[in-house]
Amino acid sequence: MSANARQLAVLFVGAHPDDETIMAAGTLAMLRQHGVRIHLLCATDGRGGESGGVPGINSPADLARVRECELRCVADALEVDSLTLLGYEDPVMGPNEKLFGFAADDDRLARQIADVIDETNVAVVLGHGSDGEYGHPAHVQMHRATLRAIQEHAPDVLFYSGAALLPDGEDRLWNRHDPAHVALDITPWIETKHAAMLCHRTQHALFMRRRKLSDVRDAIRVTESFHRHWPAAPGSPPDDLFTAWLLDAGAWRPAETPRS
Description:
By secondary structure, this protein is α/β, with parallel strands linked by helices.
């Protein structure tokens, strides 16, 4: 299928419930406001994360059920067109908060992602960066599976990762090997991102603890940055549909025009 035949639609592919919100909720809200169809895919059930002290969670299975409800809350807040849950079991953290990838056949996972790309007929896929943001093995796993799905089954689709590295700044989420091609100040859509973050009640304590905050609103990252992985964009910054959407909304190209 040619790129011209695809819908004005974006698919966010994440490893866990909350990845979509932290990395791209503001951008997704902007795109939705401008008539772009939005689809979400989540690979795991999130049972390996924290419960945040939410009442009624007494087992990993309980946490998985609650986190699915939280993700459906986000889907409503962002007014997405579809939500796909692959249902892989999220491994429980090991000692010293050691993180793991999830058990999946690489071929099957890539094929599942490709099937959703085909079903939703999207022009752009957003997902995890090559470093897995802060090095989460499941994020790296999803980055590789998503890139493979597009390269092998949907080569006309654009693939951008979030949390791309911005110059002259520090953020533990940034993918150090993915310099930002485009970045957007999502302040005009911050209320929608805040609503999405409020949905993820089990993660509020984690959001605040890691950055030593007292209000979950303060955990919102107001700059969302993206790096294009497919087609690869060595040298000059990419000039494509997704970049055009963001530039029209006030985004900037960090490599070309440092923001004042």
